[in-house]
Amino acid sequence: MKLQNLGQMMPSQLGFSTLAETVLALALLYQLRAVERLLGSWRFAAFVVAAGMVGQALAVAVGMVLRLESVAMGPYVLVFACVYQFYVLVPTVLQTRVLGVVDVGDKWTVYATAAALVAPRLAATGVLAMAGVAASMVYDANVAGLKQWRLPRWAKAIATNARNVGTSRVPADEPVVSAEQVELISAMFPDMDREHIRSMLRMVGNDSNRAVAMLLDSAT
């Protein structure tokens, strides 16, 4: 990658270049919303910043080593960082046998959409996608304490105020998770983070039985 192209790389990652890519990315991000619920909004925000910075650095390094002239436009790094977290965090609940030969889990639509997003221009998108996956793996391995890092308090205050203004007239539609539910499930999974349990309960509509089943599946 030429040095004059490095300065163009960051702004080029803010938006996709075609309508088809934008539609596929939006469909993929909608399916990946479970990642934010499981991590929690504040931890997810820290993950996006950390994985984005690490992923962009990896993409630039690989681009320079391979002497790439350019890369695809679009936030592929962040999207595929979230795809990896989806793979790690969200357990497979249902298995379907296709043609009596292959067992396909209920997460296959996420991977199919991700493949459809990068396949048309694999040479231009592959480096960014793999950089996103690698950055997410670095985060998951807690290199340099990335999992414990959080955005500054002032950033949280600004985000909280903005959210309160935007939702002041909109009733909350998320189920209320009681402390008793969290403590009960926490007793069954003493090593599990309570915020993770709370997020899992929200994701399954406050159904404790289903949350326990999914946590058991993810622990195996």
Describe this structure in words.
It is a single chain. The chain has 220 residues and is mostly helical. It has 2 domains: 3-148, no CATH class; 173-220, Orthogonal Bundle (Helicase, Ruva Protein, domain 3). Helices cover 67% and strands 4% of the residues. It has 11 helices and 2 strands. It has helices at 3-12, 19-31, 33-39, 41-66, 76-89, 108-118, 122-140, 153-167, 179-188, 194-203, 208-219; strands at residues 95-98, 102-105. A two-stranded antiparallel sheet has the order 1-2. A hairpin with a 3-residue loop joins β1 and β2 (102-105). Mean pLDDT is 78; it is low at 1-8 and 167-172. It comes from Coemansia thaxteri. This is CUE domain-containing protein. The chain crosses the membrane at residues 44-66, 73-90, 110-139.
